[in-house]
Amino acid sequence: MAIAIAVTTAATGLAGTAFAGPSTGVERTAASAASNATVVVEAARTAAFTHASATGVSKGDALHAQDVLLDPEGARHVRFVRTHDGLPVLGGDLIVHLDRGLGYTGVTRAADHTVKPAAEARLTPAQAAAKAAEAAKGDAGGVQLVLDARGGASALAYQVTVTAGGNPHTVVVDAVTGKVRSNTPVRDEFLSPKLVDTLRERGESADPVTGSGSASGASGLLGSGASGVTHYPSAAKGPGKTLFVGTVGLTTTQTSRGHFQLKDPNRYGTETRDAKGSETEKFSAGTKFTNTTDVWGNGKTTSRVSAAADAQYGITKTLDFYKGTFGRKGIANNSKAAQAMVHWGKKVGNAFWDPTCNCMLYGDGDGDMFKKPLVVLDVTGHELTHGVVEATANLQPTIVDKYGNQYGEPGSLNESLADIFGSNVEFYAKNTKDTPDYLIGEKLGLAQKFLRRLDHPSLDKLEGTIDYWKPEVYGTEVHAGSGVSSHAYYLLAEGSGKKTIGGVAYNSPTYHNLTVKGIGRTKATAVYYRALTRYMVSDTDFHQARLATLKAAKDLYGANSTEYKTVDRSWSAVNVTAANTPAARH
Ligand SMILES: [Ca+2]
Ligand SMILES: [Zn+2]
């Protein structure tokens, strides 16, 4: 007989709407939380229409709640997506802010214009599908009529899903002109096409060191065995002998006497499977990792399980970071598992977050440029954070080129947040085999010893990451542009100038040599998380991110606090100021 595995169920106030409780403060029961959320959503919806001149909602709009946040300090925030005359509005997202008494206090909105009623479509769905298939060089799947409100105007369009080999795209085709308005990869890849080209030109061959030495502080290194356990499945603890982080403790599932599975029953059933070289997006098509002993991998690529141990460790540490730090339950805060498949595809030198299967996909390396699987901790933290961003602000690239490279400030902010929180996963994990740092990809084996770094982004010569904002950043490739807010975050946390942290030397420069004294990583991270979840929307740019972090700092520490002033100073130190805020760009 199977006993129930402990699974935390999110209280849901509305069908499909995750209710996010405060990360601190009084625990609520599911029932009262649900009724509160319903009341708050209704109040926010009413306020959005009452304050239409500020919120931009109009007749024909319907608002659908995505997220409800009740701050212990009293503020309530409801994130909505929009439909207009029944059509989904792309870029129509907004957050309505209320006070404790449910009075309207403001709005954070994506489209800064009224979404106008649609013109008549001239293209048929079949014609749009053909255009989309041609643009993304694949087979068109579902076609949906939408209103595209991105970029300052609204247009009637078809949104088409195109499967191009193992690389699906979402293509938006203008329903009147037939023009392709956007062509965006569904899956987020860690290494951009541009970076892969650069590495190839340079003849880079990254072959990082692996090994199974014990990481100090790793708990649960001995398998718990079957003693005393008579009911299955049950939680067990076994060592993972990883490629990059030594021997670590993993929570696993004992399925029967002498049988174990690489699946964590204490973390929503988060599980890693073997794709066995296929490019499947179906997690169910992956092969389970099972064993007769509760030991996973051998620290080398000679065992298929070693990379799986790295993946499972990285994902569960990322989940623990978000839960332990912010009370966030899973990537989308809905108490659902984050899955992974390793050995994905043939000779794939990349790692991906795939929102379709809600899973991480890890290639084994192409055998040439990347000799090892891309399963290092900060890559996992980075990619899963893209999942968190997608479930919250859903920051979108402004432009995507035909190779899949992405451009623009909101996309740069997305990459930056992935690096910021990805680094924080390392600090949370405190693994002695992977010293926590403000570097991204230091264990990939690259010649420059890291891929990106937050203290002095322009030391990176592979992606051309920048230190300071300038007006042209609006058209910069997103990894290059990420330096602006990553640098501001580092300055907020650690301050300017030389500093050695955990044996790693940093030296953070500033615009006009402004001196910044940091407020510490914990506070800086709290400010950025609150800004992401409460005050950022799909088209937030760097100047709006400055305002979002200022609001977050005001909420947390007050408008006269050192923390608030340091947030302002940290943005000035990367040349993002109230004075140089650009006029609307469209
Ligand atoms: Ca790192
Ligand atoms: Zn990324």
UniProtKB/TrEMBL annotation:
It comes from the Bacteria. Its EC number is 3.4.24.-. Keywords: Hydrolase, Metal-binding, Metalloprotease, Protease, Secreted, Signal, Zinc, Zymogen. It is found in: Secreted. One of its GO terms (molecular function) is metalloendopeptidase activity. Residues 261-282 have a biased composition (Basic and acidic residues). The keyword Protease applies. The active site is at E383, H479 (proton donor). Residues 408-576 form the Peptidase M4 C-terminal domain. Residues 66-100 form the FTP domain. Residues 123-181 form the PepSY domain. CDD domains: M4_TLP. Extracellular zinc metalloprotease. Belongs to the peptidase M4 family. This is Neutral metalloproteinase.
